[in-house]
Each structure stands twice: as C-alpha cells, then as structure tokens.
Specification:
The chain has a single domain, classed as Ribbon (Umud Fragment, subunit A). The chain has a seven-stranded antiparallel β-sheet, with helices on one face. The longest helix has about 35 residues. The chain is of the alpha+beta class. Strand 4 and strand 5 form a beta hairpin.
C-alpha cells in the first residue's frame, strides 16, 4: 500500500516538474534558439494570432519582406506590434531605406504611420494560444510571487517522500537491533 502511494506520489511530482520545465523552455528557453517571445495583447490580428497567445518571432532580412508578410515591430520604446504588411514604400531620397505600410487583419484601416525598416524585430514563426495569459501573470506581482512559491513547493514535494523514507528506514533498523546479554 505504501509503495503504491509512493509510486503515485513520484509520478505526480515528476509530472508537475515536467510541466514547469516545459513552461520554462517555452517562455524563456526559446530565446536561446534565437526567438523573441511576445504576448499578444489585442485582437488586431485575429484570427491569425489570438489575444492571450504567445508568438515566437525570428529575425528576418527586411529586404525580403513583401506585402502579405507578417512582421513584429517597435512602435515606441515601450510598445511592440505584430501586423501584416500591405505595402512597401522606398524612400524618395535613398531607395535602400524601406518603410512598410501595415494593417492588423481585424482592423478596418491601415496603421497611421509607416514602419521604418530599423524598427522591425522579425517575423512570427509560430504561436501557442493562451500561454500569454500565463506569461503575463507570472511576469508581474502577485503572479511572480505565486510562481516562486509554487516552484519552492514543487521542490519541497519532490524531496518529501525521501525524508519519510529515511525515517522509515531508521525505524526498521532500530526494530532489527538485537541485544546480547
């Protein structure tokens, strides 16, 4: 009975640790593979990119971009957007300087300003729906505190059976001691 509970407990904690590791890889580890990770905060690109999704953006050569391509770009120092290119506009004085006219798929009108090629971060490669809600939650208090406490709790859970096993082993050894007179 105790062995089956211990096996069940081990499977539960292993699954919990596996989920945390997969989330860490999806939210942080992908950066090591050259992706930038962004959370979709608005519905301007519905249905291609749903609100609350995470998009993985890879750097792209701006000279290869064409109308129809989706780009992620800086609007300001604090704001990033992902919209579809609807036009490429070369500069009148220097044709090597490109600007892009963009529009969100769900928007009725094009964006009010052109995107300078230096503001392009990259192009989305893939997306994971709903993961952005988790990412946004754990990036700000109280979610970050809960995530840290949860990680500590999972760590404690993984060592808990070992602590009880040592106590059981010590009890068995003390029961087996034979005293000679």
């Amino acid at each position: 009975m105790i062995n089956s509970i211990k096996k069940l407990w081990d499977m539960f904690t292993t699954l919990l640790v596996l989920v945390v590791v997969v989330l860490a890889i999806l939210l942080v580890g992908m950066r090591f593979a050259g992706f930038q990770v962004f959370t979709v905060l608005s519905g301007s690109m519905e249905p291609a990119y749903h609100t609350g999704s995470v998009i993985y953006v890879k750097e792209v050569d701006y000279t290869t971009l064409q109308p129809g391509d989706v780009i992620t770009f800086m609007i300001s120092e604090d704001m990033v957007a992902t919209h579809r290119i609807v036009g490429v506009v070369p500069d009148d004085e220097d044709p090597s300087v490109l600007r892009y006219r963009t529009k969100g798929d769900a928007n009725d009108a094009e964006d009010g300003t052109l995107v300078h090629y230096k503001n392009i971060i990259g192009s989305p490669v893939f997306t994971i729906p709903y993961l952005g809600y988790v990412a946004s939650y754990i990036q700000n208090p109280p979610g970050s505190y809960i995530a840290i406490a949860g990680a500590a709790f999972i760590l404690m859970l993984s060592f808990l059976p070992d602590l009880f096993a040592k106590d059981d082993d010590e009890e068995e050894k003390s029961d087996k001691k034979v005293f000679k007179a």
